[in-house]
Amino acid sequence: MQLLRKLGLLCSPSRLWFGSSVPIGVPHRHCTLPAAKATLDSSGSAAQSFWNKRNKGRLIKSPSRAQRAPQEVSLDIQEYWRAELDKVDSPSAKPLLPHIDVTQPLGITYGQKPILHSFFQELKQQHPTMMLLVRIGEFYEAMGIDAVMCVQHAKLNPMPVSGGRSPRAGCPIMNLRRTLRDLTSAGFSVVICEEAASPYAYGAKTAKKERYLAGVVTPASPNYLHGLMDDEGAAQVDLEPTPPLLAIVQTKNGYTVVEVHLVDRRCKVFYNQTEDSVLGRIQAGGLVPPLYMHSTTEAVAAAGKAEGQAHAVWREHMATNFRNQVGSVTTFASRLHGGSGSERIIEGLLDQIKRDTGMPEDTSFQVAVDKGLQGLPFATMSQLGLGTLTGVPSLLDALAAPTTATQARRWLRRQLLSPPPLGVKLAIREACRLLIGSQEALPTMLLLHDLGVAVDHAGVLASCREVDQTIAATVAEACGASADPDHKEGIQAVVASVQKGSSCPFPAAEAGCLEEMFSSVEKFHGKVLNGLVADELDQVADARSQVAHASVAAFKAIYEEVPARSRSQQPKLIFDSTNQAVWIKPGKAVGTAAAQRMKFINPLNRHGKKEAQVYSTVTLEGALDQYRSSCLAASRAVRAVLQELAVKCEVHTQELMGASNLSVIMTALLAHVQKAHFQRCWTLPQYAGEPLAPAQAPALGPTSTPAPASTTGGPASAHAPAAQQGTQAAPAHAPSPAQGDRLRLQVHEMWPYWMDPKRDSTVRNSLDTNSIILLTGPNMAGKSTVLRSTAAVALCAMCGLLVPAKSAQVPEFQRVELRTFVGDNPLENMSAFAVEMTEMRQVLQSATHQSLVLIDELGKGTEAGAGASLSASMLEELDKQRCLGIFATHLHHLLDLPLEAPSMEHMQMEVQPCSSSDPALPGERLQPTWRMVPGKSTTSLAMEVASDCGIPVSTVARARSFMQMILNNASAPVLSADQAPPKTLAAASSPAQQHVGWQVLKAEFVDHGQQPPPSVALSSCVYLLELQDGWMYCGQTDDLLGRLDWHRGHLKVHGNLQAAYVRLPDECRGQSTARSVESDAIRSLRLRGAPLLSTHDERSPLRAKSV
């Protein structure tokens, strides 16, 4: 009970937090599926499509002669059906096309008049873009264009069109719901007409039947509830989820997204969405066509032609995406008068939807503004496995097992795609905490589809108790025809009594025939408590007994007439299910004369025609007539009781829907806690202002063994070392106190969400930052894995869910951006680089100090210089916006640029040397540890990764030779004559300040015929030579005098040599620091276009070490 109260916080009326595709259930023992469906069916108000109620249920009379004249079909209707007919490719449907004329209402060639033609035509004129299915006897039939669509999409068999007949198709009664599912899945709306119930008149001539419009199903409301109470298989009917219609409005503040739920008449409005979050909502699915797009907005109209053109381009872009996902797109306009601009837009949308779906104009919708965060961007959704991108581990599968109920998984996915506001987030976390600590047995939840609405949770429990008592006083606890033991016992007792009292043998087959009839006809048993319809059931029992005795008497009479020698050809008792009767089928030994002498008759069937092949008696026919009449009365009495029950429960509909939604939420969170906490050791997050809690998960075992996992989801490295057990990855340094106004993210020992932390191979990383981190490292070192892990921690915490970390304190993020650029977009004529720039435009437009931005490999779609330059400027912009995030890159030029990003931190993916057994890479090689540590890295493992992935040895060896040529700068540009050699190495050596804290490194110049002073003899120096041919050479030495003399002799220039050098402080003497400064100088000079003879030293792995 405490848990339900906590979960009730999720149903606060301050926010409609029940998603479009979120199915729901009812946690009450008496409200079982048959009872719920019977209640819905009898009330007709809880989950039926809300089309024009003035037509629903009314009898449709034949039109007058004036009305029968065909009306002209508008051009837009003709184009609609012509477009659908152009898609027909079924071999069974294509032969029907020559018989179709789209200028006629039904598509039937003028002059043809099939059965009920006028009835169909009148309905079609009222619903020109909807399909018609009309009950005719035991079938639902369609004609004209509708028949073609039924054959094409529902695989129905067409009726013959020979002899000038019109195209027709039909489905049996038992296949109606499957046919409707096929048609709504194809995007059609269907009008269903039923035959009106006639008074009991068995054996009379068939009278002209009245028909009425029973319901309309649409893609947004696909469930047809009519007749479920009488359906023997109702308990097995799976109600389809009811997805919403989606509308998009472009405004000066971004985009407004509107979800319209037709079933429960709700309208949810999401303001200030970004373009990418809108695209993510479309790509997430769970929608039905059409997409509604606002035709004009005041903001665009007032902004002039340029923005108007941009608006048109955007509309076409979104329409293309939606067509690729779902289908058609349509426009709507604002209502002209009344209310503010946003209110008129919503009212205009609802007016358009009412016209399109045939709803009455006075239908009211509950409009609510969603106060949650911005929707998850499409790129982030894809990179966390929540979209259609293959090869990416699914975050949803990590949150709850794939075997979890579909309704619960949809709810979890909905939270991830649109994170809830603070109050809901805290309620979810508290519910998870209660479930983790719960020691009590929990109820089994019954889950239904999408009936969720916002309610005041305070009255939910009281309403549920009241409804529970009402249902318990009406409906048997175990609903269903087989749930009435008295019914079966009564049937068996009657059959046994007539068998025992008969003087002639009454075979078991004949006894079974009687049981079959009684069980088949009396389907009303078990739907309500027997005491509520006691009189009707007593009458059925009496009539049943009379039928049994009359059947035995008739069988005995004809059995005794059969000669003993012919007893092997004895008569049989048969059950005719169509006519609901038991009759006698005589053997060959009984002729017509004998039958007449015994006063046997040929009975009449339900249409009043004689059945010549069977016999009956006047007494048996009278008993059967009384039995059928009694069963009909009992069925109507049961229906009346259920209708009364529906009326009593209707006042509590909102509360029941809210309780039903709680069932889904509880099922989802229970599955989440079982999978994430008890199986994978995930922990509850802490939020800003809360103390960082100690580890809450079970013991994890070793904490830092390298994981053989690819950063891109590819195969693991075959050379993962097994050393360094029991150590922890070093966290980033704590944020500067001067930056205390920034948000701060603290994550202790996080691991990839798709990995099991109990395995020794799982690596954990820690993070403590309040700024942008520039993350460098070689291929396959784990950069992308760190980004996905960080995004998963932040997103789960934003939803109040458990996170894959030992502990985490997550600030109040409004948005999580994870961008891993994967390729081009041919449909929109965009190259891979254009896709990168488009996505980064969206990131920069939406970035705030409450954004977590995770960028992976920006700039790989263009050449390195331009990519580094653009990345640098975007890094500065993100730092200016005070974003938190990680910028992972291979563009080492970024390390040399003078970035104006004072808050930026440097982190690298750690590597360590190991011996190599690869013939393509002899000697020592570097191996990633998959740990993130402070520092900068220019190491490349491209050759190692290529070899590990199976590239031939010869190819890798040749690549190494090419790489050496590039590093030696064999093709570098030569300085022109007017470009003087550098006079100082201060700019080139500035990165060294990060290691030793120098303020200034002043370069000394040695001209022709000069030599350095003796004081440099014992100092570590980095020097630069310019040769006579314009080439330059950079190196480092602890003996500058000797090295310059060697160069003069080796180059045969003697005193004609210019050099510049910097002297390292005495406390930094040694090759380690000198090599690091040398590498920085080489990279800086290369960026300036200097033609260097030595470039390979810039790859020194020691440059990133601290001295």
TrEMBL record:
Domain (DNA mismatch repair proteins mutS family) ranges: 851-867
Highest rank taxon of the organism: Eukaryota
Renumbered residue ranges of the record's region Disordered: 695-740
Compositional bias ranges of the Low complexity kind: 695-738
SMART domains: AAA, MUTSac
Molecular function GO terms recorded: ATP binding; mismatched DNA binding
Keywords, ordered alphabetically: ATP-binding, DNA damage, DNA-binding, Nucleotide-binding
Pfam hit, one: MutS_I
UniProt cross-references to InterPro entries, sorted A to Z: AAA+_ATPase (IPR003593), DNA_mismatch_repair_MutS-lik_N (IPR007695), DNA_mismatch_repair_MutS_C (IPR000432), DNA_mismatch_repair_MutS_N (IPR016151), MtDNA_mismatch_repair_MutS (IPR053276), P-loop_NTPase (IPR027417)
PANTHER family: MUTL PROTEIN ISOFORM 1
Protein name: DNA mismatch repair proteins mutS family domain-containing protein
